[in-house]
Design brief:
Shape: globular
Distance between the termini: 35 Å
Strand content: under 5%
Number of strands: 0
Length: 138
């Protein structure tokens, strides 16, 4: 399975997190991975998706703090759930996944925003991630 596909599955699991308490995340992951479309995934891919979703969800407070620090007038609580989930996943990759270069994380986030967000989502996601990237470099 491609990294893009793994990222998309992780995004979908993290997006579900917006609608359920953290305590129910394990059940939501199990349910998601048992769906017919996901049954085609091999166990290695399922475990990677599961691990990335757990780890990113566990860092929500850290990620939101960093996002809030650069999102002028758009604190995490006011953002659309799709855009916020994409930002969290991309920032998680930038900060905590040494296998994903910063530019790739940003580009992939913009692609997710094109697929799942509204018309303004790609520009919004790119703008916030650009500010976060500049912070990382500076």
């Amino acid at each position: 399975m491609t990294r893009r596909n793994l990222r998309e599955h992780t995004f979908l699991l993290l997006f579900q997190r917006e609608f359920y308490p953290l305590e129910e995340m394990e059940g939501q992951i199990a349910l998601y991975l048992s769906l017919e479309d996901q049954e085609k995934l091999d166990e290695k891919d399922k475990e990677e998706i599961r691990a990335r979703a757990r780890e990113a969800a566990g860092k929500t407070e850290i990620l939101d703090g960093r996002i809030n620090a650069v999102a002028e007038g758009w604190k995490a609580g006011r953002m659309g759930k799709v855009e916020l989930t994409i930002l969290r996943l991309a920032l998680f990759e930038i900060l905590f996944d040494e296998n994903v270069p910063q530019g790739v994380a940003i580009n992939e986030a913009v692609e997710l925003a094109k697929k799942f967000g509204g018309d303004d989502s790609p520009a919004f996601v790119n703008g916030i991630l650009g500010k976060l990237a500049a912070q990382q470099e500076g």
